[in-house]
């Protein structure tokens, strides 16, 4: 029996090349063509959404799903529901906070087994690079991971070790040979330890102040790490990706390194582009992340770096935990878990800031869909509305207001630094390979999310 051909018609189709009236023809979950509205075949099932923008499904290359092992923190079912509600159709899961950590092929297979039948959107998993697992890097590549994640400082969970300079240099020739990117949490411990010498002791009430936490993770920790990584990239010519850049002071050295042709990409996160330190209240541990949210001036400099292309993409670093781990009862930043959950809110957070600065939905699509897809090696499948790619779309209302309430979050624990905020834009519908998986608060159909493999 022949499959039904769909025609999605909008006056505002967002493609990599333009925003224009068009019809997107879909068959068997794949985009056949992007054509003029008058060219729609007579046998197509037409869905005309009028002036509502039709955008590519978002791709989040930095998500902590936490399953298997810590499903009480999150999990495939809740994370992918939140993603669908937020306009994400593809998630790339980080290799830590799950148990076992994804540092071997066996652990990757355990994650694959845990995901079966639970996913509302598509996913894949980064591998982990930790002290002592250099022999596992090539097998992980053979098993389909798109790249590797490592930490230069303690990551917050015992099972995923940071990698020291000697182990990193031992791994880099292997990484370079795979051709896959190394995603690095770029902070060094030395500047953090030095800053700690001037801080109050762990029991001091000053740890309820955000300024104390901010001082404990200084810009210098990021700057030293990034300088070291640029030098290593120059020597070993591996693909380097800096995750969650928080300090704008690193922009100039990154600009220079990229101008010299080094294979470096950079991400930042919605919280660094929306929040700022001066507005974070005492005890507001829902704002804690690492690296920390810095000053308002720093935020504006990050926006300029994003506009200039020094920062390539925006990923959420969705990092949830049980509410008790945020330590709201005492509001102490030194003992609270560091992580911000934002899968359901990232797009309106970003659009609120972007449209106020004159950016367009094409910019959003590039930062939050095309560039993350390219990082993960998925550009041929997702990340843009073009023939041959999966028919992953969102219908986004850029003029609607979104007030952040618990019922809009959809991830497991309803903790958010954006609670109560009035934001611009709302996801009306999310479409995965031609099938609606989210529509105005509802989740129709089955869990049809699949794993991508490189």
From TrEMBL:
Pathway membership: Nitrogen metabolism; (S)-allantoin degradation; allantoate from (S)-allantoin: step 1/1
Amidohydrolase-related domain segment(s): 54-437
Superkingdom of the source species: Bacteria
Gene3D superfamilies membership: Metal-dependent hydrolases
GO MF, any single term: cobalt ion binding
One GO term of the biological process aspect: allantoin catabolic process
Keywords in alphabetical order: Hydrolase, Metal-binding, Zinc
UniProt cofactor(s): Zn(2+)
InterPro entries per record: Allantoinase, Amidohydro-rel, DHOase/Allantoinase_Hydrolase, Dihydroorotase_CS, DNase_TatD-rel_CS, Metal-dep_hydrolase_composite, Metal_Hydrolase
PROSITE patterns noted in UniProt: DIHYDROOROTASE_1, TATD_1
Entry EC no(s): 3.5.2.5
Similarity remark: Belongs to the metallo-dependent hydrolases superfamily. Allantoinase family.
Cited function: Catalyzes the reversible cyclization of carbamoyl aspartate to dihydroorotate.
Quaternary assembly: Homotetramer.
Protein's UniProt name: allantoinase
């Amino acid at each position: 029996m022949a499959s039904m051909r769909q025609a999605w018609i909008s006056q505002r189709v967002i493609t990599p090349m333009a925003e224009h009236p068009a019809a997107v023809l879909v068959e068997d979950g794949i985009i056949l063509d992007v054509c003029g509205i008058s060219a729609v075949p007579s046998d197509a099932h037409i869905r005309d959404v009028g002036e509502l923008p039709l955008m590519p499904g978002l791709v989040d290359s930095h998500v902590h799903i936490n399953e298997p092992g810590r499903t009480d923190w999150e999990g495939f079912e809740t994370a992918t529901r939140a993603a669908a509600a937020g306009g994400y159709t593809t998630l790339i899961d980080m290799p830590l906070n799950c148990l076992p950590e994804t540092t071997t092929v066996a652990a990757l297979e355990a994650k694959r087994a845990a995901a079966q039948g639970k996913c509302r959107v598509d996913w894949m998993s980064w591998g982990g690079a930790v002290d002592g697992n250099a022999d596992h890097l090539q097998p992980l590549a053979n098993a389909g991971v798109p790249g590797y994640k490592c930490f230069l400082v303690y990551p917050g969970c015992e099972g995923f070790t940071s990698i020291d300079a000697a182990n990193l240099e031992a791994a880099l020739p292997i990484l370079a040979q795979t051709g896959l990117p190394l995603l690095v949490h770029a902070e060094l411990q030395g500047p953090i330890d030095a800053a700690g010498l001037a801080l109050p002791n762990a029991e001091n009430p000053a740890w309820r102040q955000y300024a104390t936490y901010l001082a404990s993770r200084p810009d210098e920790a990021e700057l030293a790490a990034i300088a070291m990584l640029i030098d290593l990239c120059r020597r070993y010519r591996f693909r380097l990706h800096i995750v969650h850049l928080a300090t704008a002071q690193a922009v100039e050295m990154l600009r220079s390194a990229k101008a010299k042709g080094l294979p470096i990409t950079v991400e930042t996160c919605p919280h660094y582009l929306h929040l700022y330190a001066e507005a974070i209240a005492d005890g507001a541990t829902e704002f804690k992340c690492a690296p920390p949210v810095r000053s308002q001036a720093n935020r504006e400099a990050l926006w300029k770096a994003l506009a200039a292309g020094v920062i390539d993409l925006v990923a959420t670093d969705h990092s949830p935990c049980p509410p008790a781990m945020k330590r709201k009862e005492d509001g102490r930043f030194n003992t609270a878990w560091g992580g911000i959950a934002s899968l359901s809110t990232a797009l309106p957070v970003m659009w609120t800031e972007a449209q106020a600065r004159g950016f367009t939905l094409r910019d959003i699509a590039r930062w939050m869909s095309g560039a993350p897809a390219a990082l993960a090696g998925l550009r041929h499948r997702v990340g843009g509305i073009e023939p041959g790619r999966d028919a992953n779309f969102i219908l986004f209302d850029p003029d609607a207001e979104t007030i952040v309430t618990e019922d809009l979050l959809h991830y497991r624990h309803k903790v958010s630094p954006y609670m109560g905020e009035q934001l611009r834009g709302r996801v009306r519908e999310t479409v995965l390979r031609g099938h609606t998986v989210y529509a105005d608060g509802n989740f129709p159909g089955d869990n049809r999310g699949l794993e991508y493999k490189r």
